[in-house]
Design brief:
Elements lengths: L1 H26 L3 H15 L3 H6 L4 E3 L9 E3 H6 L8 H4 L7 E6 L9 E5 H7 L2 H5 L6 E4 L6 H14 L2 E4 L8 H8 L3 E5 H8 L14 E5 L3 H11 L3 E7 L6 E3 L9 E2 L2 H6 L3 E3 L1 E2 L4 E2 L16 E6 L13 H5 L2 E3 L7 E11 L4 E7 L4 E3 L2 E3 L1 H9 L4 E9 L8 E8 L7 H11 L8 E4 L14 H6 L10 E5 L4 E4 L2 H8 L6
Parallel strand pairs: 1-2, 5-6, 5-7, 7-8, 8-9, 22-23
Antiparallel strand pairs: 3-4, 9-10, 11-18, 12-15, 13-14, 15-17, 16-17, 17-18, 19-20, 21-22, 23-24, 24-25
Length: 500
């Protein structure tokens, strides 16, 4: 309990203090937002302050005294700081790969981990918007949490590297987004896929194309949302990317190919090498042949994304136990002694070298001897139109190997769940093994701070109507519909009297 709370708290403290130290001259009036956040964090940290001090952690706060014993005021230090230029031996790290700061992973499938970020990587992040085609004349709208890499290094750092203006929104609001864009003359928006989905789920209005936004850049945009966003909001360039906080692997979709995260051409691989290898869903690890070596997938075949670790492309690891870092490294992949970073993401590269994200390894499950991609199933179910949000995952069923598909759904306003319509929709468009056997209707879905869907709790709760208060449904082939999952039906399923 203490470690997870401390982790989230330290992530915010580190990121915000970093932003204040580096970007104070550029923030102006917006600095009030950061001060307010840090004051809130100071109130939260007092209970665990003794433990932090025992661990040798120095706490700095953007607040003047009085402060608890052992807590330093960054504001007071800044007021007495010398105006002389920083000496060269202090301003430039002797090793560009040395740790610049820690940023916590979003914790989609487990607890967040503090990833070490090098000075070199932080500098490279300042080029993000330039790579996307933005200029110093742009006004960039940023509504992502500042303690994650997307907003802090790519967002704020990218604005400073570009010399562009930044509109900071404390919390994203789909209802206020376009009015904000008109008010501040926004031309660029940094997204994660869920934000774009929130926007297309808003009621249509005559002002949908009344804006100056010309470019949006980010990651995680589903193809169906991509197409609807483009049709509805006008001629906006979509620059989809892929990257990770802890690894130097990235893709940029500079060709406008819908759904792709980038293009892994021969030349691109020379600059940013990667491999896609076969993955064993049941074992939860890459497939290895009789010589204990990984096997590359063919074009068009889904594989696990790996990137080689070299002196120029290292993995700095996580703070804490070395075991945390070692879990992300694969050794003796293609030959004895080599090492690769395991992204945990399943990707596919087509015959034109376009690369597409397919799923997280922890999300993909196996049923009826086949691998099921939650992302692909979610896109099909979501295309029905009556669902505002869709989260696909696998649940264990007694007496069956693998995991059966389950869909947590949020209905659109003024829509009711239609079991027959959903049944015929998925039967027509999905292989039988990938059709969700269970449905759970929720008022809202759990998401991380970076708007990624949480599945861990849903998987643990399964499909037991005695433990779940939400309405549950079961795929019934006899009636060609999803029928209510009663206690009696649940008992028949788990005892094997009803076929799943």
């Amino acid at each position: 309990m203490f470690s997870s709370a401390l982790g989230a708290l330290l992530a915010a403290l580190v990121a915000l203090v970093f932003l204040q130290q580096r970007f104070w001259p550029y923030l102006g009036a917006d600095v009030v937002f950061y001060v307010r956040v840090l004051r809130y964090l100071m109130d939260e940290i007092e209970d665990i302050l003794p433990e932090l001090q025992d661990m040798g952690i120095q706490v700095w706060v953007m607040r003047k005294r009085p402060l608890p014993l052992g807590v330093s005021s960054l504001l007071e230090e800044m007021e007495v700081a010398s105006e002389e230029p920083v000496p060269a031996d202090l301003s430039t790290p002797s090793n560009p790969m040395s740790t610049f700061l820690y940023i916590f992973t979003s914790g989609t499938t487990g607890l967040p981990k503090a990833a070490r970020i090098s000075h070199l990587k932080s500098i490279m992040c300042c080029c993000f918007y330039q790579l996307c085609g933005a200029s110093s004349d742009d006004i960039i709208y940023l509504a992502l949490p500042l303690y994650h890499m997307s907003a802090s290094l790519l967002g704020i750092g990218g604005c400073i590297g570009l010399g562009a203006s930044c509109v900071l929104k404390e919390k994203f609001s789909a209802g206020q987004f376009w009015s904000d864009c008109r008010k501040y003359n926004v031309t660029v928006f940094q997204y994660v896929g869920e934000l774009c989905r929130y926007l297309v789920n808003q009621p249509k209005s005559e002002g949908d194309m009344d804006h100056k936004v010309r470019l949006i850049a980010g990651s995680g945009l589903r193809p169906d949302v991509w197409k609807e966003f483009s049709q509805r909001f006008g001629k906006i360039r979509i620059f989809e990317t892929y990257g990770m906080t802890e690894a130097n692997i990235s893709f940029f979709n500079y060709t406008d190919m819908v759904g792709a995260v980038g293009r892994g051409t021969f030349i691109y691989r020379l600059v940013s090498p990667f491999e896609l290898v076969k993955y064993d869903i049941l074992e939860g690890e890459p497939f290895r042949n009789k010589d204990r070596r990984c096997v590359k997938v063919a074009k068009g075949e889904t594989g696990l994304l790996l990137c080689p670790l070299t002196t120029s492309n290292p993995f700095l690891g996580y703070a804490g136990s070395q075991e945390l870092s070692e879990k992300k490294v694969l050794r003796d992949v293609f030959w004895l002694g080599d090492s690769y970073f395991n992204t945990g993401d399943l990707m596919v590269q087509d015959h034109e070298d376009f690369v597409y994200f397919r799923d997280r390894t922890g999300d993909t499950y196996r049923w009826k001897g086949e691998n099921v991609s939650t992302t692909e199933v979610g896109e099909i179910v979501g295309a029905l139109g009556s669902f505002q949000e869709v989260n696909i995952y696998g649940v264990t069923v007694p007496g069956h190997e693998g995991r059966a598909g389950m869909a947590a759904l949020v209905l659109r306003l003024q829509h009711k769940f239609d079991g027959k319509r959903l049944y015929h929709h998925v039967v027509d468009l999905l292989p039988f093994y990938s059709i969700p056997r269970f449905v759970r209707i929720q008022d809202s879905l759990d998401i991380t701070e970076t708007f990624k869907q949480q599945k861990v709790r849903l998987v643990q709760e399964g499909f037991d109507p005695l433990a779940i208060v939400d309405p549950l449904y079961f795929l019934d082939t006899a009636s060609q519909s999803y029928i209510p999952l009663t206690e009696a039906l649940y008992e028949a399923i788990v005892t094997g009297h009803v076929r799943v």
